[in-house]
Design a protein that fits this description.
Elements: E1 2-6, H1 18-32, E2 36-43, E3 54-58, H2 69-81, H3 86-94, E4 100-103, H4 113-119, E5 124-127, H5 151-164, E6 169-172, H6 175-183, E7 191-194, E8 212-217, H7 226-236, E9 243-248, H8 254-263, E10 267-271, H9 275-283, E11 287-290, H10 300-307, E12 311-315, E13 328-332, H11 337-348
Parallel strand pairs: 1-2, 1-4, 2-3, 4-5, 5-6, 6-7, 8-9, 8-11, 9-10, 11-12, 12-13
């Protein structure tokens, strides 16, 4: 089968987010199964050129965080109602026999694609990753759940529901995320399934030995709780012979992380790791920490921890509790530095 994988970001030009990791994994798995795969993703100001199997659409998505709020609102409105990239998308899809297109995150690519797929009679499946159909930010902070029930959010959802209504199948990695969309009137008369991003059985948890190697792997951004983790680690005040924490990833809080590493001798930053480097990083670790402040769907970092038999400490939020079936997972209240400090101390005893 000739299958298209669509996501607004794609390795190696993205942010190493969960959605792009899963999109790339899907492409790799389908290739191994004998399918012919092509990718549609975005680039900023033609930074990349099309190849035989990767097509880039010019988009300002990667620069969006630097824009004022008013400019963002108009940009998102255009994503919903304008036939963005119409000619190029039609050329890509019409020039070859496409048997199936699987879309992931569409913000940055625009919401014209589902209509085009319907017009061309190409089967369409959509994979959920976060709340981007409920709110354009894709983020809902703990304690600020009304962000998806505001008049502006309702206006946005009116259009996003219609745009995705032509997809024949909706795939959600967590029951929580699917239920949240169903509660807001999405996917009526559409086939929906819950399918985890990884096919993993629960491993025997690693035996913990001193010094315990704690790790954080992800975006160094406020919503991932990295500043909460740094505060909790400092408060735990563990001796180096008892435990140490390694942080991997990149983001706007990189300077904060690096400065804290200079102050605490059992804290280090290992950089932005490739897939092979990440695998070695996980093999040498014992406890994954994910103190997220936002409602997570099914975090890739926890699935990677499960694959390597790691223990984990994570926020009790969104779809995270569903991963208790796959790894030794201690849940804590989000945005509670003291609870995280205590969890770190408890596992270090």
């Amino acid at each position: 089968m000739r299958i298209g994988i669509v996501n607004n970001l794609y390795p190696p030009y993205g942010r190493n987010s969960g959605a792009e990791i899963i999109a790339a994994k899907m492409a790799t798995d389908l290739k191994k199964a004998g399918h012919d795969i092509f990718i549609i993703t975005t680039t900023f100001k033609d930074e990349q050129t099309d190849t035989e199997n990767i097509y880039f659409l010019n988009s300002a998505y990667s620069q969006l965080s630097n824009w004022p709020i008013g400019q963002k609102l108009f940009w998102h409105l255009g994503q919903l109602i304008l036939p963005l990239h119409k000619q190029k998308l039609k050329k890509i899809l019409s020039s070859q026999k496409v048997d199936l297109v699987v879309t992931h995150n569409l913000i940055g690519l625009g919401f014209y694609l589902p209509k085009l797929l319907k017009d061309l009679k190409i089967p369409h499946r959509h994979v959920l990753h976060d709340i981007q159909l409920l709110h354009p930010s894709g983020l809902m902070y703990f304690g600020k759940e009304n962000i998806i029930t505001s008049p502006l959010a309702n206006f946005y959802q009116f259009f996003s529901k219609k745009k995705l209504s032509s997809a024949q199948q909706i795939i959600s990695p967590s029951q929580w995320l699917l239920d949240l969309h169903l509660q807001h009137g999405f996917f009526k008369n559409q086939k929906t399934i819950v399918r985890p991003n990884f096919n993993i059985t629960k491993q025997i948890p690693k035996k913990i030995s001193k010094p315990i190697h704690f790790i954080f792997s992800g975006q160094l951004e406020k919503h991932k709780g990295i500043d909460i983790l740094l505060d909790a680690w400092e408060k735990a005040d563990l001796k180096p012979e008892l435990a140490y924490l390694s942080i991997a990833g990149g983001g706007s809080l990189l300077d904060v992380v690096q400065n804290k590493c200079k102050m605490i001798n059992n804290l280090d930053y290992v950089g932005h790791l490739s897939n092979g480097e990440m695998d070695k990083f996980l093999q040498g670790a014992e406890v994954m920490i994910l103190p997220s402040l936002v409602y997570e769907n099914s975090p890739t970092s926890l699935w990677e921890a499960a694959k390597h038999g790691l223990h984990a400490i994570a926020s009790d939020i969104g779809g995270i509790p569903e991963l208790k079936d796959y790894l030794d997972l201690k849940l804590i209240t989000p945005n509670d530095s003291q609870a995280l400090t205590q969890a770190i101390i408890d596992i270090s005893k």
